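Quick review question:
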């Protein structure tokens, strides 16, 4: 049975961020994820997480100036020092939460630019090596160009092949079904093909990015497929609720108490 993690950046927005841990636990979630914890004291994040009996499934490494449009810098040759500092910044939060996977964002760059590709390979290898001694996986997530124009990592095949090529044990694929359907379609076959490299999965309806209960994909089928494939990782609920978060959890109720 999939282990669902509530995404606290998008879900439970009815309450302040630090109160969303309690809200998620009360709704039946046993795990959470979010984009970035860095605006809050590391001790407070750990306290809210563990105080509510939750597991931290994932969060992102620092992306640079998010408000100015930066989306990471792993593929930006001139930002390697920033990349290295971002790992140091994230480490205390990883240690306080006990998270076992961190998402490394590629940044806005042209994948046809050889220097960008070389920078990405270098950054990915460095980040994976940095976190290996801490028992943490680094995951790479392709993003669709509709939501994130000019994002360097915009192809699941490229990401999958890179991970296979580098052969770094703690380097994995973050398979967001929403992004995959928009970029490529044929989600089930891609899950079957790429499962050996997958370290984290995320979900949302397509095309609206709401609760995974209608529109293009049959999510109950996909959840059963994950079981058939032997996937034991987390499934992050990275969607925008249509209204109040708890009013849209009918899809989740059959799995409450069966996700840990």
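Suggested answer, residue by residue:
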């Amino acid at each position: 049975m999939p282990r669902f993690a509530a995404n606290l950046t998008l879900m439970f927005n009815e309450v302040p961020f630090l109160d969303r841990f309690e809200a998620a636990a009360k709704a039946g979630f046993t795990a959470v994820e979010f984009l970035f914890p860095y605006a809050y004291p590391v001790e407070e994040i750990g306290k809210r997480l563990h105080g509510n009996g939750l597991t931290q499934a994932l969060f992102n490494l620092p992306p640079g100036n998010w408000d100015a449009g930066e989306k990471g810098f792993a593929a930006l040759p001139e930002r390697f020092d920033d990349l290295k500092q971002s790992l140091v910044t994230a480490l205390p939060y990883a240690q306080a939460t006990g998270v076992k996977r961190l998402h490394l964002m590629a940044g806005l760059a042209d994948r046809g630019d050889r220097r960008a590709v070389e920078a990405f390979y270098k950054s990915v290898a460095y980040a994976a090596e940095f976190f290996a001694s801490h028992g943490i996986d680094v995951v790479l997530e392709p993003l669709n160009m509709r939501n994130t124009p000019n994002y360097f990592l915009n192809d699941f095949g490229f990401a999958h092949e890179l991970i296979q090529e580098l052969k770094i044990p703690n380097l994995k694929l973050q398979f967001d079904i929403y992004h995959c359907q928009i970029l490529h379609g044929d989600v089930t076959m891609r899950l079957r093909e790429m499962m050996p490299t997958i370290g984290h999965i995320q979900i949302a309806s397509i095309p609206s990015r709401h609760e995974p209960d209608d529109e293009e994909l049959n999510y109950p089928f996909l959840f059963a497929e994950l079981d058939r494939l032997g996937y034991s990782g987390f499934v992050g609920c990275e969607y925008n609720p249509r209204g109040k978060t708890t009013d849209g959890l009918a899809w989740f109720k059959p799995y409450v108490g069966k996700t840990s």
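Why it works: The mean pLDDT is 97. DSSP finds eight helices and eight strands in the chain.
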